[in-house]
Design goal:
single chain, mainly beta, Porin, about 10% helix
């Protein structure tokens, strides 16, 4: 399923990029005579400010091998967590058609920290410890946005597709004893930052006549594929890093364009 999502997003991005360059010329009726030194084909259309809430799905049950021992099993008890997100983007003029318009640009997000919780089954026998860690995501996307015209000039249907890198910060790993303090926590992993492939898809409504008929406002659902991060082992006796698993997020976002 993950490979399917990656393939479809890459295909969509290639289509959007090809449309981007062709539409920059096609949108000018006399494009053959355009003087690029004085009239750039790409003009800034919108700067977008975004705020929203998201539900993240993350964490991965896994075996951690330890030198000369059987090793520990890390289970996941809490894979879902919620927090706020912020976004900032800019879009350029694209292809104009009777039924839709296309814009292209960059969109960066900050997905605030969410937590993963679980238990540690030491030597695959004794559940003596629990653990938790947090994940913060900073994805940046090359985005194509379609504004689909409706019967009313007051609003449009919007669709977004983006791909790009996501900076995953996994941190604050900690363990706690669950046997009244008999077992001493190992705290065997430390903070690590990874860059992973990421993709996003969005669908929503753009209201063109809100805020005193001045600023377009969008309300949209957005899906994020955020990739996999890790926490690094803290000593050589531990043979594996702790992986976060492939992370996903479902978000509801309010956007204002200027």
């Amino acid at each position: 399923m993950n490979q399917f999502i990656k393939d479809r997003c890459i295909q969509g991005a290639i289509f959007l990029l090809s449309s981007f360059f062709s539409s920059a010329f096609a949108m000018h009726p006399d494009y053959k005579d355009v003087n690029f030194s004085s009239q750039p084909p790409f003009q800034l259309k919108n700067i977008v400010f975004q705020i929203g809430i998201f539900d993240a799905s993350q964490g991965k049950a896994q075996d951690i091998e330890i030198q000369d021992l059987v090793g520990d099993k890390f289970t996941v008890k809490s894979q879902h967590d919620q927090n706020v997100l912020l976004g900032l983007g800019f879009f350029l003029e694209g292809l104009h058609k009777e039924k839709y318009n296309l814009m292209y640009g960059l969109n960066a997000f900050y997905l605030a920290g969410t937590n993963v919780k679980g238990d540690v089954i030491q030597e695959h026998l004794f559940t003596n410890l629990s653990y938790h860690y947090s994940i913060i995501n900073y994805p940046v996307y090359l985005v194509g946005k379609a504004l689909i015209n409706t019967s009313s000039e007051r609003y449009n249907i919007i669709m977004d597709l983006g791909i790009g890198p996501n900076v995953i910060s996994a941190k604050h790993f900690a363990e706690q004893s669950v046997d009244n303090g008999i077992t001493i926590p190992d705290n065997a992993f430390h903070n690590e930052t990874q860059i992973a492939f990421s993709a996003t898809l969005g669908l929503g409504i753009r209201f063109n006549k809100l805020l005193n008929n001045m600023l377009p406002v969008e309300i949209a659902y957005r899906f994020f594929y955020l990739g996999e991060g890790r926490l690094d082992k803290s000593n050589n006796q531990i043979l594996d890093n702790l992986k976060t698993g492939n992370s996903y997020a479902n978000a509801l976002i309010l956007s204002v364009s200027i």
